[in-house]
Amino acid sequence: MMKNTHRAFRWPQPLEGQQARIWYGGDYNPDQWPEEVWDEDIRLMTKAGVNVVSVAIFSWAKIEPQEGVYDFDWLDRIIDKLGKAGIAVDLASATASPPMWLTQKHPEVLWRDEYGHVCWPGAREHWRPTSPVFREYALNLCRRMAEHYKDNPYVVAWHVSNEYGCHNRFDYSDDAMHAFQRWCEERYGTIDAVNEAWGTAFWAQRMNDFSEIIPPRFIGEGNFMNPGKLLDFKRFSSDALKAFYIAERDLLAEITPGRPLTTNFMVSAPGTGLDYDDWGYEVDFVSNDHYFTPGEEHFDELAYSASLVDGIARKNPWWLMEHSTGAVNWRPINYRKEPGQLVRDSLAHLAMGADAICYFQWRQSKAGAEKYHTAMLPHAGEDSQDFRDVCELGADLATLGNHGLTGTRLAKSRVAVVFDYESQWATEHTATPTQQVRHWTEPLAWFRAFADNGVTADVVPIRGDWDSYEAAVLPSVYLLDEANSQRVRDYVAKGGKLFATYYTGISDERDHIWLGGYPGSIRDVVGVRIEEFAPMGGDFPGALDHLDLDNGTVAHDFADVITSTADTATVLASFKSEPWVGMDGSPAIVANSYGDGSTVYVGCRLGREGLAASMPAMCEAIGFELPQSDGRVMRIERVSEDGADRFEFLFNRSHDRVSVETDGEPLVASLGHVEDGRAVLDPNGVVIVRR
């Protein structure tokens, strides 16, 4: 359900006597270390240019060691030490993980999985968001924290809980069941409306009362959950966690009205657990945790994700709350970063609109499950390349801040790549044309293909203003309700340039198919009619595993059987196949005129490489001019509101040494330099100039 307005944007202000600057720091866990380490930490933070740390994120058991017994002394001491050193505090509500005494007294707060198994304490986030008992305890802690620190001059923001839904996204307990029933009643009004939305006439699933609604608990191996019910449960689960956040937020805001509040999202290309764009309406400023994808997608996925965060923030400044200096601890293989990537990655987030660059964490833990997760101060200590890079980055951020970067925002691109959380959720169902296709991969492929052709796209949530761009991409946006379908028609009719792909406009918001041939929602706009799908794979010998196109590209995983095109349409590429396939000569890429605008429909999965190769012809067909640019370099620009100040970021996307033209005053370079009007970039290099 779409909201109308965001909360007013509020950004953490500098400590008294300090100038506004780029925030720099990370999570700090002084309670993991003896107090004699604290002064050394602050000395090294000052050396690195750290000016903010997030404190007390997992400190509930330390703050309230027994029920009703509070110990703020240790936290007071470290906050005072930090503040007097000029280091601000982003203070957590400390509610992310309940202490053992609470869960032993009230095991009913523990979440249950779809089999009914209890998630026992031993890690984190072992609480259910719909538990009234847990809410009471958590809000009591929030009240105590707020009352104690309401006048503390060193606390500049509230860090509400931590990574909601990272481990407790789904809960199948009776508390969750009753909350799901209430959610359905609020959304639909009557049980008949729920029956219609979920299509319960199928398999005799009709319900007579809201009390008959249960969560999508285990139904047996190989069986298929009702798609509408499962989609709504994902919506409900995001809303249930959001309601818990709002309860914490509102209590903290009531006691400390002058202090901005946020909670850290987990936006990444595959990070689609919660509807973060919906959550973006409820924070004073958007913050995000992002961890790199190892391998050749590393930089592009980071840039894509950061652009999506900027879209969620509606181009207001946002806070990178966590990323890593190097390896993480939670993958089967925890790859290190290459030389230069510590600095490069941070500056890429900065380029995409972040005005705060923070890490998990300051000092690398010596015990616990995250002891191998790298940090600003690694196990090797001060005499280490990582810490030297951390200091270099701190100096770079200070330079950019002194030159006014914080007064700028990410410049608007000419093209928007649309992303939709609910389309991703719908494509996750186990009864679809192919389990090899999900929504989230296609927007990333288009972002990368545009980058290969010299265009840095904006990634825009479907609720955003994608229809204000010169060109827009609907990449496998599976769900299009009537309102968004009309937005598409209006956008193109008024002169917009639209790229749409397979698996777009297939179902409405209830996951009910738009009838009459695919893509039923916008068939008239894109000028094609599809009667069936042609999934491809290698799980059966002799099955169709690919389709060649006559433009030299190759389709994998999915293709549309386009049986007719509009009179206004032009086929740009066709399939080539053996006669027995039944696809030889069938349209694969189709351009169409609609109103004053034009469209290109891509009826197959081409991947980044196929899209990049096809893009010049597609863009020419709809009048979208591509720049003459070296696609190995990504250009990102931040600009002031009046256009007077411009900062150009140049990133090497390749492992080659590259050289590109640039103008302006060189400010920062890492593995790169400016020479005779050209930026020379080594692998992982970046150059920033002020224009």
Automatic annotation (TrEMBL):
A biological process term (GO) from this entry: galactose metabolic process
A Pfam family annotated for this UniProt entry: Glyco_hydro_42C
InterPro entries in alphabetical order: Beta_galactosidase_C, Beta_galactosidase_Trimer, Class_I_gatase-like, GH, Glyco_hydro_42, Glyco_hydro_42_N, Glyco_hydro_b
Residue ranges annotated for the Glycoside hydrolase family 42 N-terminal domain, each copy included: 27-399
GO CC annotation: beta-galactosidase complex
Alphabetic keyword roster: Glycosidase, Hydrolase
Coiled coil regions in record: none
Residues making up the signal peptide according to the UniProt record: none
Keyword Hydrolase assigned: yes
CDD domains documented for this protein: A4_beta-galactosidase_middle_domain
Beta-galactosidase C-terminal domain sequence ranges: 635-691
Record-stated family: Belongs to the glycosyl hydrolase 42 family.
Protein name listed in UniProt: Beta-galactosidase
